[in-house]
Amino acid sequence: MNKEQGLVVAVIGAxxxxxxxxxxxxxxHAFPVRLLLPVGSSRSVGFTVTFxxxxxxxxxxxxxxxxxxxVALFSAGGAVSEQWAPQFAKAGIxxxxxxxxxxxxxxxxxxxxxxxxxxxxxxxxxxxxxxxTTMQLMMALKPLHDIYQITxxxxxxxxxxxxxxxxxxxxxxxxxxxxxxxxxxxxxxxDMNCLPHCDVFVEEGYTKEEMKVWHETKKILGDDAVSISCxxxxxxxxxxxxxxxxxxxxxxxxxxDVRTALxxxxxxxxxxxxxxxxxxxxxxxxxxxxxxxxxxxxDLANPRGLHLWIVADNLRKGAATNTVQIARYLLDSGRxx
Length: 337
Fold this sequence. Notes:
Layout: E1 7-12, H1 17-28, E2 33-39, E3 48-51, E4 54-57, H2 61-66, E5 71-74, H3 78-90, E6 94-97, H4 113-116, E7 126-128, H5 132-148, E8 150-159, H6 166-176, H7 208-221, E9 227-234, E10 241-249, H8 255-264, E11 268-270, H9 282-285, E12 291-298, E13 305-312, H10 316-332
Parallel strand pairs: 1-2, 1-5, 5-6, 6-7, 8-9, 11-12
Antiparallel strand pairs: 3-4, 8-10, 10-13, 12-13
Helix pairs in contact: 1-10, 5-7
């Protein structure tokens, strides 16, 4: 295919929070879309989404496959991805999936393009998007790991309710109006509260979200020796996820060299001047593609220990933007030539 003509792109879950953001990112990044195929649930079929100034009708999964898209961007949950991603792949369609289903599958690369885009091989038809928490973490860890070799890390996250979906936003808004939530998605109130509970509890008191950081970090960096433990907390914020990160290195470091390594890494913006109250916040990150890093300081007890504060919009780089960037990486690599 002549890529100048554009691609046929299916967006699975086009009416959800991430799906809508994907459409926006495709437009903003000027991704060459010749034909958009928005796919939604049976309740959404027949409605429209807006793309490049046009109203495009939402279709079924079967209708999308019949159009033989070049790439399918999935963000419709694990059950949908598990059922349909293999069918798209079998039809020769490249799938980029946002669910957790394929992340730890040995046959599917888990990709942040700036970090490990080279893990994608020509035969890969299902490519997994990492968890949003892991994704922004990897953007900061990769340049530091390459230089100083991370041995251990501890992460505490402060995660936006948008990571749970539209229903969580509705719950927060209802609570802030003083109403009883009509369909609560959290076991406790979220307004004026923090819940150390993202996803379900599993091994030894950890949640699935926390275990995703443990496992995905190793796969993305290609280093099983890197051990990152996590406590994931849901907070009443809509702008993005924040992470308080402590790292221990094999090698000694200078703080200015750390700042330079982070600043030089594509997609990372360092904002680190506490004396002028300059540090990243979720409101600052909202609607942006970059990963912001600040509060960079050496540990008081361990000279090879480093503290960071990392913030990113979880719907953008944490999901939709990374998905589109993978598609762009494939396009530039000649996948559809």
